[in-house]
Amino acid sequence: QVPLVESGGGLVQPGGSLRLSCAASGRTFNAMGWYRQAPGKERVFVAANRWSDRSIDYADSVKGRFTISRDYASNTVYLQMNSLKPEDTAVYYCTADPRTVRLTPDYWGQGIQVTVSS
Questions:
Q1: With 80 as the cut, is the pLDDT of residue 2 above it?
Q2: What is the gyration radius of the CA atoms in the chain, in angstroms?
Q3: How would you write the chain as a 3-class SS string?
Q4: Exposed e or buried b for every residue in 37-70, given b needs 16+ CB within 10 A?
Q5: Contact criterion met (CB below 8 Å) for 84 and 14
Q6: pLDDT digit string (tens) for 60-99?
Q7: Phi, psi of 86 (to 5 degrees)
């Protein structure tokens, strides 16, 4: 099991910003990304970044507000979240996979809470 360690969550007011980080230790992955799970709802895809074809993909609900990026030297993936809304409140999970995180990723972080509230 490869540890994926998330950081950067917390409480923010609507319209605010947060940046999530996720560091993978011991292995470099072709694909890394983020999912989220809101209270009482299923876990859903948020964003993905794949090195092999330089592809970046977002859920429609976060397009134009969230930005995913990678630091390959440190094996870290980031999620910059701007213009946050109460409906963005969820536990966010970092994911990694040798092929793609758009299907069921092989590796998951433990999850980090993001709460958007005034």
A1: no
A2: 13
A3: CCCEEEECCEEECCCCCEEEEEEECCCCCCEEEEEEECCCCCEEEEEEEECCCCEEEECCCCCCCEEEEEECCCCEEEEEECCCCHHHCEEEEEEEECCCCCCCCCEECCCEEEEECC
A4: eeeeeeeebbbbbbeeeeeebbeeebeeebebeb
A5: yes
A6: 999 999 999 999 888 999 999 999 999 999 999 999 998 9
A7: -55, -35
Place of tokens 């092929």: 99
Q: Could you tell me which residues come within 8 angstroms of residue 62 by beta carbon, excluding any fewer than 6 positions away?
A: 46, 47, 81, 88
Q: Are 7 and 20 in contact (CB under 8 A)?
A: yes
Tokens 């923010």 — which residue? 12
